[in-house]
Specification:
The protein is an alpha+beta fold. It has four helices and 22 strands. A hairpin with a 4-residue loop joins strand 3 and strand 4. Helix 3 packs across helix 4. The longest helix has 30 residues.
């Protein structure tokens, strides 16, 4: 065998060894890859099945090989496992319970990893009472959500549970739900947030999201909210274009005005108010102590320096006003008002509210 053949054989051997190493690394990477974490089941709920039994229900959890039901033990002061359910099981009945007693549950998913149960975190807590037909203490059955009638425009708030929540299988005239507390959540907090009193606040992003209220036993109701920014409208709900100088401001300085209106109606502070002006030397005074105020300084300078009819910009909690003077004496003027709530709807100078929730409807 000559040197050329020897060299060829060596190269071939090196290639095979390299390929084997790559394949080995690939297998080892796959072997070392961590399995996807199993998540707790969603839509956990509990309802009364009889005066001595409760039925716990849940949705399928992806990658789960089964489910573990936990019940709160007052003596141990913790949740203890009471049942292990199979992969295809979606409910379990807890029997032989005491009538008139409240029971609390949580559910976890698990996945088998190397012969051991790898458990998810536990779900949120659900609770229910066992009761007879004429009991005055019952479980929630219906949640009714509706918009506050005083806020048909602007921020929709005060989403409440209705007064006619009924008990399950009860004929009592005035049943009392064991807990009227609701847990509120938003499907997208970049569009709208909701606090635990049910008050909704629109954020800086337009779009659709869902606000959900959950009762003590897991009963849910949700509403669809389409959040629209009326500070940057395609058309104005109140203004019809009857003022020449307003039209100039809303065309030539449209983006500047909208940026300022958006900034001040989002960065609201009940304790902050004032007026932004330009002095004789061209210095702008009156900026509030808000975070990121620099992001609208150029917009403010552009309007005050280049459109002198706007002599000041007044800001206060949840609103901003542009004062326009038509003559050199300042005797002819109007205020162009942007505000969150619709409390200025009868004022012809109010251009539009800021954030509004429309298509507010139960699902």
């Amino acid at each position: 065998m000559d040197n050329k053949q020897k060299w060829g054989k060596a190269v071939q051997m090196i290639s095979l060894l390299f390929l084997a190493a790559v394949i080995s690394c690939g297998f080892s990477k796959n072997a070392m890859a961590k399995p996807k974490p199993v998540m707790p089941p969603e839509n956990v709920s509990v309802q009364m099945k009889s005066a001595t039994s409760l039925k716990i229900k849940w949705n399928k959890s992806e990658n789960a090989d089964g489910y573990i039901i936990y019940k709160y033990n007052k003596r141990a002061k913790k949740y203890v496992r009471v049942h292990t359910a199979k992969k295809n099981q979606r409910s379990w009945v807890d029997k032989n319970l005491k009538t008139g007693k409240v029971y609390q549950y949580k559910v976890a998913s698990y996945k088998m990893v190397k012969g051991k149960k790898k458990r998810s975190r536990k779900s949120y807590e659900v609770s229910a009472i066992t009761h007879k037909k004429r009991s005055k203490k019952v479980n929630a059955l219906i949640i009714s959500l509706y918009a506050n009638s005083e806020n048909e425009m602007g921020i929709c708030s005060d989403l409440l549970i209705s007064d006619d929540v009924l008990g399950e299988d009860t004929k009592a005239s005035d049943p009392v739900v064991i807990s009227d507390k609701l847990v509120w959540s938003s499907s997208d907090e970049s569009i709208a947030k909701v606090d635990q009193n049910g008050r909704v606040t629109a954020m800086e992003k337009e779009g659709t999201c869902y606000i959900t209220a959950r009762a003590h036993n897991g009963v849910k109701e949700k509403i669809k909210m389409n959040i629209v920014n009326y500070a940057r409208p395609k058309s104005f709900p109140y203004y019809r274009g009857e003022y020449k100088y307003v039209n100039i401001m809303l065309t030539d300085y449209r983006e500047n005005v909208f940026n300022i209106a958006t900034y001040f109606t989002v960065n609201k502070n009940e304790d902050v108010w004032g007026t932004i002006k330009m002095d004789a030397e061209g210095n702008i005074t009156g900026y509030p102590d808000f975070d990121n105020i620099a992001e609208i300084e150029e917009d403010i300078r552009t309007i005050l320096a280049n459109f002198p009819l706007v002599t000041e910009i007044f800001y206060s909690s949840e609103r901003v006003e542009f004062l326009m003077k038509y003559n050199k004496y300042g005797s002819s003027y109007c205020r162009i008002d942007y505000c969150i709530d619709d409390d200025m709807s009868d004022d012809v100078n109010t251009i539009a509210p800021h954030w509004a929730a429309v298509n507010f409807s139960p699902m």
